[in-house]
Structure formats: C-alpha cells, structure tokens
Design brief:
The complex is a heterodimer of chains A (273) and B (321). Chain A is mainly alpha-helical and 273 residues long. Chain A has one domain (11-270). Helix content of chain A is 75%, strand content 0%. Chain A has helices spanning 11-31, 34-56, 66-94, 97-103, 111-137, 146-173, 177-193, 206-214, 216-228, 240-243, 245-270. In chain A, helix 3 packs antiparallel against helix 5. In chain A, 45% of the residues are buried. The mean pLDDT of chain A is 89. Mean pLDDT of chain B is 87; it is low at 309-321. Chain B has 321 residues and is α/β, with parallel strands linked by helices. Helix content of chain B is 37%, strand content 26%. Among the domains of chain B are: 4-79 and 155-225, 3-Layer(aba) Sandwich (Rossmann fold); 229-293, Alpha-Beta Plaits (2-Layer Sandwich). Chain B has a six-stranded mixed β-sheet, sandwiched between helices. The chains are: A mainly alpha (273), B alpha/beta (321). Chain A binds chain B through residues 1-4, 6-7, 9, 14, 17-18, 21, 25, 28-29, 32-33, 96-98, 100-107, 272-273, and chain B through 52-56, 74, 77-80, 82, 84, 86-90, 92-93, 97, 101-102, 104-109, 112, 116, 133, 149, 153-156, 185-187. The complex binds adenosine-5'-diphosphate and magnesium ion.
C-alpha cells in the first residue's frame, strides 16, 4: 500500500500552505470561543471610558482634549495585553497532545507558530474596531485625515505582530500557562504603565522619566499620536526614539521579527525532545 | 533499503537520572504487527516517541519506512501515522474538522482531505459524531477519531501507543476490530500495550520490554515455548478421588491433581499426548477430555520480567588489582 500521491510543490509553497492552514485552524478555534472575543472587546471599552473620564477629569492637556491624547496610548497598550494572552495560549497549546501530533506531520516547523501570531492579529481586529468606535464616541478624531490614521493603525499592528513573537517565546519557555501569565505580565505592566500612555513624562521623577522616555512603547504611542494628529508639544529633548518615533517603531518591530521568529521556531522544535 | 518497516539498533535515552531506554533494538517486517509489551514506565512511549521523530535518542539509530529518523525526519513523517497515548484531537473542532486539518497538514489538499475525512468517519462509525465538537465525545469515540486521524494519509507504518488503555470492554473490542481491519490492509503496525491478551490477540510478534531493555521477543507461540513446556491435562467426568489418584500414578511423578483434572508436563508435546491417551485407554477410567495446554502469556510475562526484576544491579566487572 502506498501513501496517497501528493501534488508536487516547492518547499516554499508548502510552507506557505502550512502556515495558511495553521492560521485557518486558529481562526476556527477563535470563532468557537466567543467569550474570549467578548472579553477582548469589553476590556478596551472599559479602558476608553474609565481612563478617559477618570484621568481626563484631573489631567488637562494644554490646548487639547485628554481623550484624543489618550487614545493612541490605549491602542498601543492593547497590543501589549494581546501579546501576554498569546504567551498563555501558547503555553496551554504546548501542554496538549495536539502539538505532538503536528510534530509527527510533514509540515514546516514554523507554520503552527505563524498561524498563532497571524490569527492573534486577525482575532484582535473586532476589538480594535470597537475601540475605534468608542474613541470616536468620546470625541477622539484623527486630525491628519484618514490616510495618516490608517498608517497609524498599520504601524500599531506591525508592532503587535512583532510583540506576539515575544509572547510566543514566553509561552514556549514557560512550563505552564500560569507561569506564562506571570512571565509575560510583569514586562507588560512595566512597559505599558511606565510610559507616556496616560501622562506626559516630563513631570515624572528623573529615574522614572528616563525609563518612560526610552521605553519603546512610548515611541509607538508617540508615532500613533503623530499620525493621528494628537501630538501636543515637542518631544523631550535628546530622546532619539521619541524624536523619530515612526522609524523607531518600524525598526524595532523588524528587529524583533528577524531575531525572534527563528529563536521561537527553534525552541518550538526542541521542546519535549 | 531493508525489508523491515521499522528497524532500530541499540536505542538509548535518559531523562536526567532516569534511564528510560537502556538498549532497545527492533526489526519489524513490513506488513506485520508488533506489540511492545511492558508495564507502566517500561519505556514503551519513549521508544514510540523516538521512532516517530518526536524525541532524539541519546544513542542508537533507527530507520522507519526505509528512512533514517534523524537525518531524514521529514521523509519519515510523510510515511507514518501516530496515535499517541494522550488524546491529540482538538476539543474546539468537530471530528470532521479535526480530520480535515490533519489531511491538509499531510498535503492532501482541501478537497481530498474532506473526502478522506468523510471516508474515515464512516469507517470508524463516527458519521453522526463528525459534526459534533470533540469535547462532547466519549473516551472511546476520541480514541477512534485519533486512530482515524493517523490514517488520513494512508501511512505505511502506524504507531499506536496504548490504544485501548482506559477504555471500557466494549470500546476496547471495537478498537481491536478497527486495528484488525487495518492489518488486513497490509499496514505495518507497532502497538504498545500493558495487556497480554491484547498483544496475543493482535500481534504477529511480541517484544517484551522492561526497564528500558528488551527482555524477550518472538511470536506469541515462541514466547510461550521458550518459557515452559506444554502440559497434558486430563479431565475426568467427575471428581472421583480414587480415579484421580489412579490417573496421577499412571502419568508419573510430576503429575498434579487440580479439581477433577490431572496435569503433567508434556516434554514432547503431541507425542506425549499420544502416549497419555494410550495409557488412559488401558486404565479404563471415565474421561471427559484430554488436551495439551500451553503456558499463558501472563505466565510468560511474569516469568521474564520477574527474572529481570529480581536481578540485583549487575555486578561491576572485576578489575584486576
Ligand atoms: N519527558 C520525561 N522526563 C522525565 N522522565 C521521563 C520522561 N518521559 C519518560 N520518562 C520516564 O522514563 C521512563 C519510561 O517512560 P515511558 O517510556 O513513558 O514508559 P511507558 O510508556 O512504558 O509507560 C519512566 O520512568 C518515565 O517516568
Ligand atoms: Mg506509555
């Protein structure tokens, strides 16, 4: 008895097909977990409303609307939370027998992880959409026009894609989903809150300000503000990453992608060997 | 390329201080069924994981379907089906979706994958269940789906790690039927089991492993023969003590009485049986039945593993002072 004849394809073609099939699988799974999607939509709504009104009532941004100032920060922050969720999901995956089965199939080693990261972005889109609607409802406006706004969101999504690989690595290293939660939550909270997401860094104590200014998340937020036309005042002097936030964001994302995808794939192939 | 579908030479693998595999060699001819028989922790799963490219051996080599598991892992993966000891089906997908995904990952294409999924659901009596999410499946249904999934690309070599452990008797016999059907189609099967009757029922050859070592191997019959000679068992019509005693005396010094039977070693097998029949005719005792009895695999198993188990650690080779 012979194996069913398979159509001849190049290994690159096969790799793409494998990645597509893996993405498709995660999307079907995602669809079956409406509670997770619901949660991912609810969270940003609460954030926009809560932080907007809680902080907005006591923080005044000169010549601007706090909600407009805040939105870019919340968009960027949501990518951080998503990457932490990826870490937990990957750790859960790795403890299930299904990954073992995939490893006995003749598929590209990268495909399952690529499927995981792409599906994370796609499954996050409803939440992003709802967040944009909420933002518009509370008065946020992309002042530079629709084209720049789209560019801004693209930038944030590229960053989200890159971050998802850090989440994947955390999930692969962690022994359990609880451990993955802890490993990923600490940097997420540090980077997400010690930043320019909620407030201008200039009034922070020096040690905190230095961290917040050079925090890559601040650069992403600043890039978003620039493209949405929500920037208020000049960037802090001498902080290159905030003076060139778009280049910093793209550069950082590319570096993470180039460095961490191979590390993740290697780690994935080696686990449980 | 050899005629062996699976050939392993001196596989060894440790996990820290645990020597899961010490030295395991296998040669399994194409189209046959081999049972890896051993207790919990004997090294069965480790062997299967190495042969299915999930785990690297510390030592040793192996070829599966003619390809080296280390240097040609992808070739091996194209030719094997694996049903692991733990469930590998996705709970959030339906049975049909699970099978289709495996087909797509085996590069059958979407259409063929769907078609194969339909066929297999039918073959494994899961047609209605195919549209249900796997999380609603019973244990037996999951195992059958898992087995179906490993057949989607018509593998040359199939690995089944404890395919019936934890199943109730009905599900177990359904699984046996499914496995027998595969064998009838010529697939080479390596299955692991803790159950002797399962090995005896399904396998052409049995390899007994214990503590990472092969302690016995052969056909079920050879294994029985290697462990003890058969015995002649004479069963009387009723348990008449005088008659039983008469038969025992006639059968010789080693004969023993059990209930209304007398058994004695039959060193020459059928020849011994013929002699006993002649003897009995002369005695004129009412006989219910006379037959040859082979030692059960249970006895084989406990004998070989006991021998190893009672072994104190092998004394280190003497070093001249
Ligand atoms: N990943 C692992 N890490 C540590 N020990 C392991 C691992 N896998 C197996 N072992 C140990 O190796 C031995 C053999 O295990 P295994 O091959 O699973 O046995 P079996 O399948 O025959 O029950 C056991 O003592 C088990 O605890
Ligand atoms: Mg096992």
């Amino acid at each position: 008895m012979s194996a069913i004849a398979t159509p001849r394809q190049s290994s690159v073609q096969r790799g793409l097909i494998d990645a597509y099939n893996a993405t498709r699988r995660y999307l079907i799974r995602g669809k079956r977990q409406p509670d997770i999607i619901f949660g991912s939509v609810l969270f940003p709504v609460i954030f926009v409303v809560l932080f907007g009104y809680v902080f907005g009532s006591s923080i005044s941004v000169p010549g601007g609307n706090y909600h407009s100032y805040l939105m870019s920060g919340l968009f960027a922050q949501s990518t951080l939370f998503a990457s932490s969720q990826v870490a937990v999901a990957v750790a859960t995956d790795m403890n299930e027998g299904v990954i073992d089965r995939f490893k006995t199939l003749p598929i590209a080693r990268s495909s399952i992880l690529i499927g995981r990261s792409i599906s994370t972005i796609v499954l996050g889109l409803p939440a992003l959409g709802v967040m944009i609607l909420c933002a518009l409802a509370v008065g946020w406006r992309p002042e530079n026009g629709i084209f720049d706004a789209i560019l801004g969101f693209l930038l944030i999504e590229v960053f989200a894609f890159a971050l998802s690989w850090l989440g994947i690595l955390a999930g692969l290293i962690a022994k359990s989903s609880q451990a993955a939660d802890v490993i990923s939550s600490i940097p997420v909270f540090l980077l997400g809150f010690v930043s320019n997401v909620f407030v201008d860094t200039s009034k922070m104590p020096v040690w905190l300000r230095v961290f917040a200014d050079w925090n890559p998340v601040s650069a992403v937020v600043a890039a978003g503000r620039n493209l949405f036309g929500n920037t208020i005042g000049p960037p802090p002097a001498g902080v290159w990453s905030l003076e060139h936030p778009e280049i910093t964001t793209i550069g950082l994302a590319l570096i993470i992608i180039v460095v961490f995808i191979p590390i993740c794939v290697r780690r994935y192939s080696r686990t449980s060997r | 390329m050899s005629n062996f579908a699976i050939s392993a030479q001196h596989l060894a693998r440790s996990f820290g201080e645990t020597h899961a595999l010490v030295d395991v060699s296998l040669d399994i001819p194409a189209g046959s069924v081999c049972a890896l028989l051993g207790r919990n922790g004997a090294g069965k799963t480790t062997t299967v994981r190495i042969l299915t490219t999930l785990l690297d051996p510390d030592d040793g080599h192996a070829q599966v379907a003619g390809f080296d598991i280390a240097s040609q892992a992808d070739r091996v993966r194209e030719r094997i089906g694996v049903t692991g000891q733990t469930a590998t089906m996705d709970e959030l997908l339906t049975g049909h979706e699970n099978l289709e995904i495996i087909g797509r990952f085996s590069h059958l294409g979407a259409a063929v994958s769907r078609q194969r999924a339909d066929e297999l659901l039918q073959q494994f009596d899961l047609v209605d269940a195919g549209r249900m999410l796997v999380k609603k499946y019973s244990g037996g249904m999951r195992r059958r789906l898992d087995l179906a999934a490993s057949l989607i690309a018509n593998p040359e070599v199939l690995f089944l790690d404890e395919p019936t452990t934890g199943l109730d008797p009905v599900a177990r016999s359904e699984m046996w039927v499914a496995i027998r059907n595969l064998v009838a189609r010529g697939t080479t099967v390596l299955l692991t089991t803790q159950y002797l009757d399962e090995a005896d029922q399904l396998a052409d050859t049995i390899v007994v492993v214990d503590r990472g070592l092969v302690v016995a191997e052969g056909t079920p019959e050879q294994l029985k023969a290697s462990i003890g000679r058969p015995s002649v068992v004479v069963t009387l019509v009723d348990a008449d003590p005088a008659a039983l005693l008469k038969v025992r005396t006639a059968l010789g010094a080693d004969a023993v009485i059990r209930g209304r039977s007398v058994s004695a070693p039959a060193a020459d097998g059928l020849e011994s049986l013929a002699k006993v029949v002649t003897l009995l005719e002369e005695l004129g005792v009412p006989i219910h039945e006379v037959g040859l009895e082979h030692p059960s695999l249970d006895e084989v198993f406990s004998a070989v593993t006991h021998r190893i188990g009672d072994h104190s650690p092998v004394a280190p080779a003497e070093i001249p002072a």
